[in-house]
Amino acid sequence: MTSYRIEITGLQEAIATFSKSPLPTIMTFFDSKVMPVVAAIARRETPKKTGDLADSQHIVRMGDLHWAILERERYGKWIRLGVDYTGPMYPLRPAYALYWEELDHPVAWSNWKGFTANDYGEKAAREGVTAVAAMLSALLADLKREYSF
Questions:
Q1: pTM flag (> 0.85)
Q2: Residue 30 has pLDDT above 60, yes or no
Q3: How far is CA 18 from CA 3, 67, 145, in A?
Q4: Are the C-beta atoms of 69 and 58 separated by less than 8 Å?
């Protein structure tokens, strides 16, 4: 699994200055406002030949101030990293025929060229940083209202 990190520095020090922990407010803000936007960016950047890969993405809270966007489709890794194998490709399933829209059918084998990497996760993370930065002023307003500082 490839991991991308959006890190906000100084947050733990800022939390320590409050009389009561603002962590629940921060986590609710990220759960309800920030992560849905970052997930939408990730889905938009994901290649959509069938749409299964984008549909398989989901947000998981890994801990306090730590979220991940995971995908259930195993071929996401191949798309992100690329495949440099070139040569004949044979089917392994009982039908013994390949099916790709780009090929004439039925096809017993293909001289496959591989494909270059498409790191859609990195693109989404870069754009997500911009979206998160824009939303932090709203979080600060929420904290000011709730904690009167």
A1: no
A2: yes
A3: 31, 23, 13
A4: yes
